[in-house]
Design brief:
By secondary structure, this protein is of the alpha/beta class. It is built from 11 helices and 12 strands. The longest helix is centred in the middle third of the chain and has 15 residues, at 153-167.
């Protein structure tokens, strides 16, 4: 792994606004990181960073994680980065040329052990922007990196992120009643948790934004981890979130399919039946729970695609149509222009 500063991904505007007072990487890495900034080696398009918390995030460990990246891509000019060591969670803003008033908070996956920043963040933001949707990529904390109350750490960041988006609705030219989320794999578990646990108090309020609702108007879950208690769970996500050897009660509390209520957001599900990492049974269980609870939901199940496909499938694979299907369902719910 190499040290990574996300500021190029988020833009120089945030740097000039004062993020030097809250550095995202260890001081020893500054020289290398600044060289990367100057050369453009980090790759992502310019943008803005919105820190989630005015100070340290809740449950801060005595030894702060150091933000790092593992560049998985071997192709020049193509980024496929895995991010770890998130100390200062944030929203990366990606703006369309012509906003249509709708917003999506993107939640990358990675088994709660890393964030698949490009595959399930930047690349998703591009197709959303092309449709006029303002995108916010959630840089959330990883529960196994020393934080107190590890099981709620990602949910704290997701709740706070959704509230900040609504708090900025006027200046970002979005409708606070048209705020959606898209989560992938373990990020799908976090998206499902936000859709079902948005009103749960997971942290002490810090400012006026925390008086706003954290309920997404639509939650898109793409090849999601759903259950933490059933045999078809993804064991790595479960153990990274809850810790190894969590008891049955804790696993059931974290299982999204058990948490559906009359206040659960509408849910869009996409999964491939040949997913060998997170079985499609996860999406089926949540869809059945939504039907039983008489909550709005749609499920698109495909025979091919595997896991982690993002928007990288060839056009001749039917699963590649899922972004169009998501946009269609959002339009049906009145969250996108017809």
């Amino acid at each position: 792994m190499t040290d990574f500063d996300p500021l190029p991904a988020f833009g120089r505007r945030a740097l000039l606004a004062g993020l030097a007072a809250a550095p995202l990487i260890a001081t020893a890495a500054q020289a290398q990181t600044q060289a990367q900034i100057a050369s453009g080696a980090t790759g992502p398009q310019a943008g803005e960073v919105l820190p989630l918390w005015p100070g340290a995030a809740p449950g801060h460990p005595s030894r702060a994680p150091v933000l790092k990246i593992d560049q998985r891509s071997k192709s020049p000019g193509f980024d496929d980065r895995w991010v770890t060591g998130v100390d200062r969670p944030a929203l990366a803003v990606r703006r369309p040329a012509t906003p249509n008033g709708s917003a999506v908070m993107l939640i990358p996956g990675g088994g709660y052990g890393f964030l698949a920043w490009d595959n399930e963040g930047e690349e998703q933001a591009r197709w959303l922007n092309a449709r006029g949707i303002t995108a916010y990529i959630l840089l959330y904390r990883l529960p196994g990196e020393g934080w107190a109350n590890r099981a709620t750490v990602p949910l704290q960041d997701a709740q706070r992120g959704l509230r900040l988006i609504r708090a900025r609705a006027g200046q970002d030219r979005i409708d606070p009643a048209h705020v959606m989320i898209l989560g992938f794999s373990a990020g799908g578990h976090l998206a499902g948790s936000l859709a079902t646990r948005h009103a749960e108090r997971t942290y002490a309020p810090v400012d006026a934004a925390d008086r706003l609702s954290a309920r997404p108007d639509l939650a898109g879950l793409i090849y999601p981890v759903v259950s933490l208690a059933e045999p078809f769970t993804h064991g790595g996500s479960r153990d990274n979130l809850l810790g190894p050897n969590a008891d049955l009660a804790a696993r059931q509390r974290g299982s999204v399919e058990r948490l559906v209520t009359a206040e659960t957001s509408p849910i869009f599900l996409t999964h491939a039946s040949d997913d060998g990492l997170v079985p499609i049974a996860n999406s089926l269980a949540l869809y059945q729970a939504m039907l039983a609870g008489k909550r709005p939901a749609t499920l698109h199940a495909f025979d091919q695609g595997g896991h982690g496909f993002g928007v990288r499938l060839e056009a001749n694979v039917a699963t590649a149509a899922w972004p169009t299907l998501f946009a269609g369902y959002a339009t049906q719910l009145g969250l996108l222009p017809g």
